[in-house]
Amino acid sequence: MRVRSICTVVLLCVLALLLLSVNRASAQSSGAEKPVRYTYVSEWTVPRAMWADYLKGDAADIDIMKKAVADGSIISFGAFAVVNHQEGSPTHGTWFSATSMAGILKVLENVRTAPGATAPALAAAKHWDYILESRDFNHQSGTFTNGYLRVGTWRTKGDVDRKILKATMVTVLEKLMTDGALHSYQIDTEVVHSTDPGTMFVAIVANGGEGIDKFEAALDEVQKTNPAGWAGLSSTLDPAGHRDFLAHVSTMTEK
Q1: Rounded-to-integer distance, Cα 199 and Cα 255, Å
Q2: Residue 88: per-residue pLDDT
């Protein structure tokens, strides 16, 4: 009886050590740095009378990006129209993402040399480009036409290793992905700086208007349940540099 009891205890200890080892490996794996994701964003301020013409050209660019996803040059793309217009600010835009700058530049060259690149709607528009990178991102695979893109722009200070960001904002966004409230999210900084150094872009594509409501509710809730963590995040952000915009995503594809 005593020998059997000792064997049982030993077996339980071995099982406990194995479970601990698996948990540690899982934690290390989940905390591993993701490979960099590059994104090119093109924004246009199109005169209202030319919106229909712009959308015709946009359809041609979307065809180019569909082919680029199929051949592996890029891993995602989307097109949007801004909802909260501001004088002199963008009205429309597109984006595409790749796992390398070579993929970004290949597709960019195809878009810029396409026949519609010199169309009157683009010639009459103001234009901005951003080349971004991210290691904090997630997405649903598929094609969606009900998305709403919300981008928050911040100037950051400190948190170089992104530990505070990961423990707060990334945690919230991952939960929203699990709940199906978001089609995608990514937190970007510029590869080629056209804004102030340290600028951060928090971009989500919500699953319809309901997804936007869930995103807002989640931010309110986490500030109540984790005020210390949220205060820590706020201390790394300059409120004077904060801007938001909201856009309807007419189509997006994630590989």
Answers
A1: 27
A2: 86
Q: Within the chain, which residues score under 50 in pLDDT? A: 1-30
Helix, strand, or coil here: 86?
Answer: coil
Tell which CATH architecture fits domain 33-254.
2-Layer Sandwich (3.30)
d(CA 74, CA 77): 8
Give the helix ranges, DSSP H, for the chain.
Answer: 2-30, 51-70, 101-112, 120-123, 163-165, 171-179, 208-225, 227-234
124: three-class secondary structure by DSSP: coil
Cβ neighbours for 92, distance < 8 A, ≥ 6 positions apart? 43, 44, 46, 51, 54, 55, 58, 79, 80, 81, 82
Torsional sign, CA 207, 210, 212, 218:
negative
Question: What number of residues does the chain have?
Answer: 255
pLDDT tens for each residue of 51-67:
999 999 999 999 999 99
Domain boundaries, the chain: 1-32, 33-254
Q: Which amino acid does the sequence have at 173?
A: L
- Alpha carbons 93 and 249: distance in angstroms, whole number: 9
